[in-house]
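Notes, p. 3: input format for complexes.
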Amino acid sequence: MSSVARAPGRVNLIGDHTDYTGGLVLPMAIDRETTITFTASPHVELTSRDFDGHVRFDLPTASASTVLPSWGRYVAGVAAAMSERSMAPIGFSGTVATTVPIGGGLSSSAALEVAAALAFGIEADNATIAAVCRRAEHLATNVPCGIMDQLTSTAGVKDHALMIDCHSLDITPIRIPDGVSVWVVPVSARTLDGSEYPMRVAQCAAAEREIGPLRSADLAGTNNIVDRVIRARARHVVSENLRVRAFAAALAANDLHDVGKIMYEGHHSLSRDFETSTPAMDAAVEHFARIPGVHGARMTGGGFGGCLVILADDDAPIAAGADSDGHSDAMRVRAADGASLDTPLS
Ligand code: GLA
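Output follows (346 residues plus alpha-D-galactopyranose):
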């Protein structure tokens, strides 16, 4: 009898490029997930329903970043990251399938990592599993990501977004109000591998060398940064942390006007100060902002392409608006529970 490990993707409502400086984020796990159906095995053998190739490696793994086909690197990265912590991974043989769009900014890689960790028999709390999977992403791709994606995939709460303090890892679930839908609109495919993401991480580190931790800095402090570009990066991070708090309060109070305003402000900050948006994403935000019933829209996730997230009344004509703008793959997503493992009763 097979076991099934499931892990959801995520969409971030507000709080981008804050996690790797220990700031605040407000994502939700979504009802699109990656599943690995497996039985225990002495090594690791995996086929994919969505991708070509067959991943096979022995445990313990050598170098995760050279495994082929390349989707297997995330799986090997998890095995390697578990071994680093002396959490001996158990081999498995199985099939992976996903309903998370790949490379669209919805954390398909985090979903694969978390599902793999469960299949490898990890036994730890959500934050530890997420930390192992974050390390796996670093080993697999060299992208120095933060912990948001993996922690959202492990700790998601149905019908709720999660305000996460990425320093303390405290999580505050905030209910999505009734009558409000969350939509995701893919604008352009991309991977963070090869993007300027590592440069942004380095620029934030440079800002912190000048003014100390960005998570506790204020806007006045960022004005003291000498370099214009580093100053702008820091201004985004510090203002984004403020936006997360304000958004959480507005969402809990069902003040959708404020929620939307904060989303647009967040987009402009990413576009102007952090420079992770693209002209196509800016145009798409403007397009959806004009649709009746839309409260707010912004790019979501690492950027340089990817998706928009939109908050709108349930009956807002988003699908029609997406069709007219050439984004017919817009999808309504619901906040979902985090990862789980189903084992057969013996
Ligand atoms: C990617 C990373 C996350 C986070 C976002 C930007 O999704 O994996 O850790 O930094 O970008 O908010």
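The chain has a mean pLDDT of 95.
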